[in-house]
Amino acid sequence: MKNMLSNIVRLLVLIAISIPVSAQVHVQGIVKMRGVPKTFGNAGSFTPHQYTHIWAFSPPNSSGGVNDNGYFKSNVMPNSSIDGVTLIEGWSSIEINPPDNTPCSSSDSADTCQPDPAVPLTYHHYDWSTYDSITGSTPVYQWLSTSFGGSHKKVNLLITGESAASTNATTPHYVTSSAWYSLFSPQRQDVLNALKDCAGLPWSGSGGTVTAWVGTTVTVNSSGCCSTSSVQSNLLQTGDLIWVTSSTSGLATGSGGSAITVSDSNDFTYTSSGTGTASSQSLTFISAAQSWAVPYEYPYMNALKAYWAAVVAHYGPNFSLNGTNYYPQLNYFRFGGSVGSEWYPYCTSSLASLPGSYAYTMSLWLNYYQQMGNYLQSLGPPWRVIHSINSAETPVNYTYATDEAAYAIGWSNRFGMRDGFGSQGLSALDYVNCHTNTCPVCTTGGAHCAASNWYPLFGQYDSSGVPLELQPEALSYPGDTDCSNPTCGTGNGNFSGDLPTFLYPFATNQGTSDVEIYWRDLSLSFDSTNYCHISGLSCLAASSITVDGQLSAAEQFSWFTSVGIGTSCGGSQGGGQCNYQTNVNNAHGQH
To answer: In DSSP terms, which residues pair with 339 in a beta bridge?
Structure first.
């Protein structure tokens, strides 16, 4: 009997190993096998193989002109090393009207109407037309319906409640309005921005010009600033609380801000802290709706729960567009409790000064993370879920990420497939820190360890079979192997260092199952005809990559002719050595 059982186990193991990864994909998610050597009876030792997927992060949706997704779809997506795309879905584009007292009708489905989880007789209504569009610049449909190189590819969705820019355009307007937060106890929804809180916050506001200043009443002109409807964008509306700074004494608001009156789409008035008569003065303003809403407070958290419930209902097994069921092509989802699909707590010093139960602590934040993860699991998501882990504070406290990873792998979807976790802060600095005595092999937390402690955490959970995901913190910078020139950072205009330094074999050797690579880096890797149209020592304006906050004209030409595709490796122009393409190809697949 013992030998019979041993033979059965050996047979099952051999079958599992022999199944190609493409065949392991099914409607419930992706089966991944990896881990440490194991012994089965007399079968000896073997190592289950880890498969690394490569995803194009947030590719362009529009065709024509610069950043042309037609070029990206024809020159990048057909490559066998690209498994699909990772797309962002913003809350305010789906909940386009504030909640009301209109009950869900028999014609409503769970994805278009959700009773509020806590406020009686209040209902949230959702409109999926933006992301379900099958015409024009379709944010989702074009990536599901198109056959790239003869095969359809997978789509990951990042469910986003707040965004980091000069103004937050992703949180629905109503969430920070008194009409909403007055329904809760305590009746408050705090917000943070760079004008009144920490100067380094992304939410730095917009510029305007004073057209009149009579007493303490100031009239401001700012093109396209305002709305006279109840649209759930970040446009200013009458009654909004705003904060103003200016070099002109008296124009600023106090720390409590000022309520505004909107005149038309370009003008509004507010009450200044001082008096004056000057006009044509410049100022900077930001509203509560354009700031970062403190997400663990009840008004925001409660509204977010309803939105998540609608997402799970919408992308269920019957998810179809234009008569075709695309549910099998949905791969994994990430739900963010803070900015993007992440969980980073901003400006903790200001958060800690909030009154009562809203005063920030690490345990409060981790409780918020755990509560939302428990809620998501209770919804029974029908696809793989990956949770972001984020360390925080200064100096960095890695306990956040360690605890979040432990929570993440304890959750599962409706089919019992365990959730995974990942970091969106990968950079060449991780490689440096994990190969020096500053942080020996990144096995312990410290001031210079891997971003959000992903390196030791991946090593700890690699054998568990959960998905382990990484995303570079910004666009890569070829040749910058230690993040010293330029230094690495997050956001537009910043970089993550040399891609071959942090991708293969560094990231893949640590058990990474999924890597989301910035689409411009993939264009540099695979687009030999349109990434750069060479003219002398520069790229023509008709090239597929625009020169903007992401890279300069000099960088575009230099990178294409060094690590990009040139005549030496099959391209039609330049002298690139295909370093990037080679590294991406090596990172993809079995390891």
So the answer is: 162
d(CA 159, CA 336): 6
Tens of pLDDT along 292-342? Answer: 999 999 999 999 999 999 999 999 999 999 999 999 999 999 999 999 999
582 burial type by CB count under 10 A (0-12 exposed, 13-18 middle, 19+ buried): middle
Topology of the domain covering 53-165+293-590: TIM Barrel (3.20.20)
Q: What number of H helices and E strands is found in the chain? A: 16, 27
Return d(Cα 415, Cα 379) in angstroms, integer.
12
- Strand-pairing partners, residue 532, are none
The predicted model scores a pTM of 0.90
Which of 142, 54, 50 has its CA nearest to residue 521? 54
Q: Are 304 and 295 in contact (CB under 8 A)?
A: yes
Position 187: which residue type?
A: Q
- Rounded distance between C-alpha atoms, residue 214 and residue 279, angstroms: 9
- Whether residue 309 contacts residue 112, with contact meaning beta carbons closer than 8 Å, is answered with no
DSSP alpha helix (H) spans, 355-494: 362-378, 399-408, 428-433, 454-461
The model's pLDDT over 548-563, given as tens digits with 9 standing for 90+, comes to 768 888 888 889 888 9
How many residues make up the chain in this entry? Answer: 591
Q: Which of 460, 513, 386 has the alpha carbon at shortest distance from 51?
A: 513
CB 97 within 8 A of CB 125: yes
User: Which amino acid, 309?
Assistant: A
Q: Are strands 84-90 and 154-160 parallel, antiparallel or unpaired?
A: parallel
The span from the CA of 262 to the CA of 229, in Å, is 10
The dihedral built from the CA positions of residue 471, 476, 479 and 480, taken in this order, carries a sign that is negative
Q: Tokens in use for 192? A: 């943070």
Residues forming a β-bridge with 461: none
The domain 191-292 is classified under which CATH number: 3.30.420, 2.40.30, 2.40.33, 3.30.980?
2.40.30
Cβ density class 297-324: b for 16+ within 10 Å, e for less: bbbbbbbbbbbbbbbbbbbbeebebeee
Predicted confidence (pLDDT) per residue in 389-415, tens digit: 999 998 889 999 999 999 999 999 999
Return the structure tokens found at 381. Answer: 């998501």
